[in-house]
Specification:
Length: 383
């Protein structure tokens, strides 16, 4: 019987060409992207990353798709919606997909894997996460924001063995032969299962998950690793403890909150040559018009007024809030991609359109002159 190490090594052999592909595609094509387009303009190309960008793992495009809605975040996403969303994203040229065992306790990975099954692995960039191992449990219905009859439980494991087991489980659950990026998930003080104990979990990861992911990268089994977290402190800690390639920083860089990331995160990433992927660029829906801000319905003071004002200025300049929110998060040179979640095909097409339309420079000037975004925040075409 194959050992876990052998299992991963076999899948690495099968995947070797695919894992390197996003970088090669970026280098070969440069910014001359040929992706097909959006609802707004079927010929519009997704914005690309420059060839041989400074970052170690630049995805081909500045835009990817999040996997939380595939995992029934807030409400059950039907199979039809899930597959329709993925098909629309693919048709629009999107080739960067993020998921996690945590999203719907395996549901998001299963759906994404089903969709990717007949796709050429060299054509897409796939990221998933480690840190939670899943176990069958008939008594479980909903967990946290994940809805539906999940019948699955989870436990944390940031050890070296836990990471290998998690990657093996994800490969099997998705039925794919490669994973490009692996993020250490939710090892962070905002994780309600941990709180301040996150530092103890981090010590386990420092000795276990981090060196193991570096070995897996060096063996060519994964393309790169990083943190997938909602606070900045664990991202900085990972850059001290190891040599990450990409940080999936969620909830810290949006139109409405970006000062801390500009001050603490961006300089550290530049110094360490680490790319950023921006999670929750729509504030978990608030910047697309929903009532959730960062997975809660408590809206911070002043945000409603700010959102209304930015929307009004956007309309005056012929654009909209969601477009501004998405383009803002993709603008900095240190950002490799922004990955909004989408529930339906319509969302996927709309978000794609938002990433391809031109927003007038005067719009960004107006936001800065009214103090609605920070003066030193990079904006499109001036990043
Ligand atoms: N710790 C981590 O690693 C971490 C944390 C957070 C996020 N992430 C990653 O980042 C991705 C994005 O985050 P997210 O999905 O949680 O939040 P988000 O991208 O900020 O917002 C997604 C929500 O916005 C709404 N939406 C999206 N497009 C829309 C459109 N065109 N029109 C109207 N509403 C629209 C949908 O709301 P409805 O629900 O109402 O349909 C959707 O649930 C995740 O999927 C995940 O891959 C990672």
């Amino acid at each position: 019987m194959a050992s876990r190490r052998e299992f991963l090594a076999w899948s690495a052999l099968a995947a070797a060409a695919g894992t390197a592909a996003p970088r090669l595609m970026a280098a070969e094509k440069g910014s001359d992207n040929t992706s097909s387009g959006s609802t707004a303009d079927p010929d519009a190309a997704l914005p690309g990353n420059p060839p041989l960008a400074m970052n170690r793992f630049p995805p081909e495009h500045k835009y990817g798709v999040g996997g939380t809605q595939l995992g029934n975040m807030y409400r059950v996403t039907s199979e039809e919606e899930a597959m329709g969303m993925l098909a629309a994203a693919w048709e629009g040229g999107n080739r960067h997909f993020d998921t996690s065992p945590w999203y719907g306790l395996g549901l998001s990975e299963r759906r994404l894997g089903r969709f990717l099954f007949d796709k050429d692995p060299s054509e897409y960039l796939l990221s998933t996460k480690v840190g939670r191992l899943l176990t069958p449990d008939a008594s479980i219905e909903n967990v946290a924001n994940w809805k539906g009859n999940l019948r699955t439980n989870y436990r944390y494991d940031y050890s070296a063995d836990g990471v290998r087991r998690s990657i093996e489980d994800s490969l099997q659950r998705m039925g794919v032969s490669k994973i490009d990026l692996v993020y250490i998930h939710d090892l962070s003080p905002d994780n309600e299962d941990m709180g301040q104990e996150w530092e103890q979990y981090f010590e386990i990861a420092r000795k276990g998950a981090i060196p193991e992911l570096e070995r897996l990268r060096d063996e060519g089994i994964i393309g790169g690793w990083g943190m997938g977290v909602n606070e900045i402190a664990p991202s900085l800690a990972a850059m001290d403890a190891g040599n990450p390639d990409v940080i999936l920083q969620a909830t810290q860089y949006t139109l409405l909150n970006h000062r801390d990331a500009l001050d603490r995160l961006f300089p550290a990433c530049r110094e360490r040559d680490v790319s950023l992927v921006i999670g929750a660029p729509l504030g978990s829906g608030y910047l697309a018009g929903s009532t959730h801000w960062m997975y809660k319905t408590d809206i911070p003071e002043g945000f409603a007024q700010k959102r209304d004002r930015i929307s009004a200025i956007a309309r005056e300049h012929g654009t909209d809030l969601r477009t501004a929110a998405l383009q803002f998060t993709a603008a900095p040179e240190v950002v490799g991609a922004t990955i909004p979640g989408a529930r339906t095909a319509e969302h996927a097409r709309e978000n794609q359109a938002s990433m391809t339309v031109e927003v007038p420079a005067e719009f960004w000037d107006a936001l800065k002159s009214e103090g609605l975004i920070e003066e030193d925040a990079p904006v499109p075409n001036k990043a």
